[in-house]
Amino acid sequence: MARLKVLIARPGVKFILRTIFYFLILLALVYLYSYSGINNSKFIYNEF
Which terms are listed as keywords in the entry (predicted)? Predict the structure, then answer.
């Protein structure tokens, strides 16, 4: 356990882990945006 803490405390490892974490969040947001179907809805004034 102490070895893991020492490994995570290194600046290079912290940078890589944060980059992976933020990339996963970005992927989740892109997935949720595409899943919501915002671009597939009709424009409300086309029916008039």
Answer: Membrane, Transmembrane, Transmembrane helix
Position 8 scores a pLDDT of 86
Does residue 28 contact residue 19 with C-beta atoms inside 8 Å? no
Low-confidence ranges of the chain (pLDDT < 70): 35-48
What is d(CA 26, CA 21) in angstroms, rounded to the nearest whole number?
Answer: 9
For tokens 């992927």, what's the residue?
27
pLDDT at 1: 86
Q: How far apart are CA 25 and CA 31, in angstroms?
A: 10
Q: CB within 8 A of 23, min separation 6: which ones?
A: none
